[in-house]
Design goal:
CATH class of the largest domain: Mainly Alpha
Order of helices and strands: HEEEEHEEHH
Radius of gyration: 22 Å
Number of domains: 2
CATH superfamily of the largest domain: Ribosome-recycling factor
CATH architecture of the largest domain: Orthogonal Bundle
Helix content: 55-70%
Number of strands: 6
Structural class: alpha+beta
Distance between the termini: 51 Å
Number of helices: 4
Shape: elongated
Strand order of the largest sheet: 3-4-6-5
Length: 185
Amino acid sequence: MVNDILDKTRQQMDKSLEALKKEFTSLRTGKVSAKIIDGITVDYYGTATPLSGVGSISTPDANTITITPWEKGLAGDIEKAIAAANIGVNPNNNGDSVILSFPPMTSEQRQETVKHAKTMTEKAKVAVRNNRQDGNNKIKKLEKDKEITEDESKQGQDKIQKLTDEFIQKVDDTFKAKEADILKI
């Protein structure tokens, strides 16, 4: 029973770490990533469709993203969707494709992005600690219901704490790697 709780707690902590990594992909580093526009959808025959579903997305250089719609009539809709998403750049529609030209990041922008990443990291740590609390509460309930002994409860909580320490370290390592990537010129 305690091992099941430990496994579930590990899975939840792993999900928290993966959510942080996914969130980090939306941050701009020195090179523009197409992930910046992942959350943007365009109305395609009455359905909200991600940009990757209505055209091809490419990054021809470090500061440019090009979206070439499969249907030429969509270029205007894509342009409007990007403008409404407010990602910090104005889209240019040349009739065939929509081009997003990002200026090189200033050191102030890099510092702001690092601050934003730090906020995301703190939220991930809180999520990991909440996972710890959930696991500990389940173990305490087993002890209270006399399904496990006090010693087993203590051992289970110690294992959950070790797991928490391990995941907090992974979260910190993930942040350090992202910070280095953001600050690299």
